Amino acid sequence: MPETTLLSDLNDRSREVFRRVVESYLATGEPVGSRTLTRELTEKVSAATIRNVMQDLEHLGLLDHPHVSAGRMPTQLGLRLFVDGLMEAGPVSNTDREMIEETLGDERGDTGAMMDRVSTALSALTHGASLVLTPKQEAPVRHIDFVSLAPDRALVVLVFADGRVENRVFTPPPGHTASAMREAANFLNAFGEGRTLADLRRGVSREIEASRLKLDQIAAAMIEQGLAMWDGDGSDARLIVRGRANLLADEAADLDRIRTLFDDLERKRDIAEFLDLAEQGEGVRIFIGSENKLFSLSGSSLVVSPYMNADRKIVGAVGVIGPTRLNYGRIVPIVDYTAQLVGRMISGRKG
């Protein structure tokens, strides 16, 4: 049954009981009993009536009761229903806004240092682990050279206009020759002056498609394969994680599950997936429990939002991860405001 249908099928009493259970659970992390709710509901009803309503909500898959506890807590479906249909997320508070703005500091500072400060501020504000995906560096290429290491291994040396030098090993096409590599390097240095790697690859691909560049097949194949490795491998992106200790602060924390989360955070390949999650929808996205494909840890939530550069292109993302009982109503506007502010500052920077 779709979540919107579930919510519309609830009467006023069931909806209020459900909302109270979820809000109490998010605040305390503890199951909520019927006697507690009888003191809080606007409509005065007996504990037995509340228990019946909670049983109905449990039958719908919105609530569950752990072990032998008489109290109820929301399921993953229940949390999703609450977040999408009942949660009230107001504007970021003045206190939180001031802390974020003070932390980001002077726009003339270093972008990397600013991202470190953003991550630290998010962690401190939300008492969770923060994640910040920094923008890729798009400096133009100044010089390219190929070096043969073995029949099946070659090295490309990339010198960028900002002074960075990178050495990347790749597998050249079978039968490559030293002269073919020199010819490929000469062409790329002439054709690619002032272009970024992404621009260079697109331009070369068009030229190869049109005329094969008057290069032999080996040189053309090497360019295609080498450039394919350069573009989109995430090597210029950086994932900053702060506040991991916050995930261990809960006395009930499952250390094995937290350890699994830390392992997932260390995987470089997940950086691209992190940005993909943010690009799949506009604004803040919330992933609850097993909905979060990036992290294999069930029982965690991720609140993430992309930020854009001056060309309205998504170049990174900021987010907060923690237990499913995050204070979503407060964290969502914090993440949203931080992403917007980072985007404005990135747009005014050159590097």
What attributes does this structure have?
351 residues, Beta-Lactamase, Enolase-like, domain 1, 3 domains, 5-stranded antiparallel sheet, 3-stranded antiparallel sheet, 13 helices, 10 strands, elongated, GAF-like_dom_sf, stress response, transcription
List the helices and strands and how they pair.
Elements (H helix, E strand, L loop, with lengths): L2 H7 L2 H17 L5 H5 L8 H13 L3 E2 L8 E2 L1 H10 L8 H11 L6 H16 L2 E5 L7 E10 L2 E8 L4 E6 L7 H14 L5 H15 L5 H14 L8 E4 L12 H12 L3 H10 L5 E4 L11 E9 L5 E10 L4 H20 L4
Antiparallel strand pairs: 1-2, 3-7, 3-10, 4-5, 5-6, 8-9, 9-10
Helix pairs in contact: 1-5, 2-4, 6-7, 6-13, 7-13, 8-10, 9-10
Radius of gyration: 26 Å
CATH-defined superfamily of the largest domain: GAF domain
Please state the structural category: alpha+beta
CATH architecture of the largest domain: 2-Layer Sandwich
Count of domain modules: 3
Structure description:
With 351 residues, the chain is α+β, with helices and mostly antiparallel strands. It has three domains: 3-85, Arc Repressor Mutant, subunit A; 94-135 and 237-347, GAF domain (Beta-Lactamase); 141-230, Enolase-like, domain 1. Helices cover 47% and strands 17% of the residues. The protein has 13 helices and ten strands. It has helices at residues 3-9, 12-28, 34-38, 47-59, 76-85, 94-104, 111-126, 178-191, 197-211, 217-230, 255-266, 270-279, 328-347; strands at residues 63-64, 73-74, 129-133, 141-150, 153-160, 165-170, 239-242, 285-288, 300-308, 314-323. Strands 7-3-10-9-8 form a five-stranded antiparallel beta sheet, with helices on both faces. A three-stranded antiparallel beta sheet has the order 4-5-6. A hairpin with a 5-residue loop joins strand 9 and strand 10 (314-323). Helix 8 crosses helix 10 (217-230). The radius of gyration is 26 Å and the shape is elongated. The two termini are 49 Å apart. The relative contact order is 0.13. Residues 114-332 form the Heat-inducible transcription repressor HrcA C-terminal domain. It holds the Pfam family HrcA. InterPro entries: GAF-like_dom_sf (IPR029016), HrcA (IPR002571), HrcA_C (IPR021153), WH-like_DNA-bd_sf (IPR036388), WH_DNA-bd_sf (IPR036390), WHTH_transcript_rep_HrcA_IDD (IPR023120). It comes from Paracoccus limosus. Keywords: Repressor, Stress response, Transcription, Transcription regulation.
